[in-house]
Amino acid sequence: MAIPVIDFSKLDGPERAETMAAIAAGFEHVGFFQLVNTGIPDELLERVKKVCSDCYKLRDEAFRDSNPAVKALAELVEKESEGVPVRKIEDMDWEDIFTLQDDLPWPSNPPAFKEMMMEYRKELKKLAEKMLGVMEELLGLEEGHIRKVFTNDGEFEPFYGTKVSHYPPCPRPDLVDGLRAHTDAGGLILLFQDDRFGGLQVQLPDGSWVNVQPLKNAIVINTGDQIEVLSNGRYKSAWHRILVTLDGNRRSIASFYNPARLATIAPAIPAAAGDDDYPSFVFGDYMEVYVKQKFQPKAPRFAAMATTTK
């Protein structure tokens, strides 16, 4: 099965109904899909690829020298060479990351990085807010409802951050993952992934894993745990992971449009027949649980929130 690819430009034409149906199916049945023709200029996306690649070149040596997964893998391989049975690393990721937020320091090198990434983040934020509008329409919600929830009725700004990641070549992909399987904690995630090297996989409802195929200048969309709550289980956050390769240096730029930490999250529509409602809670309280249980089953996180709100 291939992850759905949807032409976003068709929302404004005669194929709007079919496009809305495809987006609804992507949210409801897979939890991931790819958008093409988003309105973000290809020229900007090409510049973003280059500047992020240039930025990583300045970080590569530090990754090799100081990333704990590099050291742990080297130790495992040495033990294996001595005949000692080894097991896959389960508590580290083969990942170089840094995050971008408007109110935090940004990398100063390469010199063009900040200006270009600010332009990119502005475009992605516009796309995120368009997608929230589509989601509201699909769920039968009042226009602006999700932003209202995420801002606590305008009291705060929603959180908007970008994680720039690289997954360098790994000598033993069988012994470590680029990023372990998890669901995302927040709201809407927009990913500009590498179009040369794969590795991102999504778990389907039947438990099988499928690749999110590299596609030039597409934006991958997925929803986090807060959308699962807000939709009362209709749009479930999907488990996903990143596998590393022997020779590929995979780029990943994920932007997160999340609730403010003090926003109250609650179901906005009725649960499906026979299902219980999801709990209501403050997003910051959920995050305190999530950071400890990110790579563990999802249900106990929601159960913990139900307990705190009783």
UniProtKB/TrEMBL annotation:
Pathway membership, UniProt: Alkene biosynthesis; ethylene biosynthesis via S-adenosyl-L-methionine; ethylene from S-adenosyl-L-methionine: step 2/2
Highest taxon above the source species: Eukaryota
Gene Ontology terms: biological process: ethylene biosynthetic process; fruit ripening
Cofactor dependence: Fe cation
Keyword Iron recorded: yes
Family statement drawn from the similarity comment of this UniProt entry: Belongs to the iron/ascorbate-dependent oxidoreductase family.
Protein name: 1-aminocyclopropane-1-carboxylate oxidase
